[in-house]
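Agenda item 2: adenosine monophosphate complex prediction
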Amino acid sequence: MNIMILGGGGREHSLAWAVMQNPKCDRLIVAPGNAGIAAIAECAALDIEDGTAVAQFAVDNAIDFVIVGPEAPLAAGVADDLRAAGVLCFGPSADAAHLESSKSFTKQICDAAGAPTAAWARFTELDPARAYIREQGAPIVIKADGLAAGKGVIVAMTEDEALAAVDDMFGGAFGGAGAEVVIEEFMSGEEASFFVLCDGVTALPVGTAQDHKRIGEGDTGPNTGGMGAYSPAPILTDALAELAMDTIIRPTLAEMVARGTPYQGVLYAGLMIENGIPRLVEYNVRFGDPECQALMLRLGAQSLDLMHACAEGRLADMQVHWADDHAISVVMASAGYPGDYTKGSVIRGLDGLTEDSHQMTFHAGTAQADGQIVANGGRVLNVTARGTTLREARDRAYRLVDSIDWPEGVFRRDIGWRALAPDTASN
Ligand code: AMP
Ligand code: GLY
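Presented output:
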């Protein structure tokens, strides 16, 4: 099979690595890729949000199967363009991708499906939004309706913070994404990520994870795209996962079918769990990053078979084969991230690292310059390891981190702390 992956981050490096483990892969092209991906696959410079160009490229290169990594091409309809050109694709249509690209769409689907989520209201004007905040009080959550690169959510602990957030959003701080604002009830509890493959009809859970969104140890400081993740998420027990499938995932998928926009691809449900009840925080229409890196190390070659069966509508015949294992991914970022940072610092020590089915250093934002690997983004490396316990995986990952020579890099030492706390059983 000739395969193309769209994207160029750590998520796509881990997808490429897993696909390459599978003998069914004859040729792999990743667009645009990065310096780490270039070491295992062909990279192609391509505007991955231009569906016409992507479909033409796929046809010209006899690509049999395309896996879409990030949400932006999906929201732009790239999966639709590929299918229209007769190319098999893993990833939802633009209509189905509204589950990530519009917060109010997702809330409407939840209401229609009876899926538990935070109470909400939608506003297109400032004054009614301010009045609603005064009426509801704090804490309260303010969300720009559209895609805002993970930055459009403000969890306001005070009314003043909430009022300032709507002022900013209607003032254009998030561009078009903030022209509509969703205001939600604040949910307390513990968050976990649940990944389910859906072929339109059948839904197959492929794993759970928890990520650390804050830059600082102890989950403090500004939000980032994610500074680390581990899988499985101990809080999401089999019973809770089944409850989430029954009350949230399957009703959502049925509602999408009823609307004539069945969902095909991976559905990433962000859940808030309190008192044994999961509620939906949000959907994403792609794998999480860095959650995917931990998941791919655990799933390995079978992930290609699963994604391929998903795209062909054959999930009812598939099973996920789990080892009883744990994986963790530690993000190394450029100092200054998620604020301003400089690019171009040299990363040494990568060549000597052992890379196998237990430990992989996935590249998120790297480039080659004068024969050296240099930092080329905010999140730069995803040091990922697997073990029979989370502790073993964690120790292996940090041994790798410590052998990377990159003085300008920063990372958190405490990825997985919640699951590794002394009072948490079985780790
Ligand atoms: P989202 O982009 O919707 O996932 O929101 C980003 C983060 O904001 C989530 O991962 C939660 O930590 C937090 N969050 C979003 N909505 C709520 C809510 N209704 N209650 C509490 N926290 C929330
Ligand atoms: N790690 C969070 C996300 O991918 O959205």
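Discussion summary: The longest helix spans residues 238-258.
Owner for follow-up: CH.
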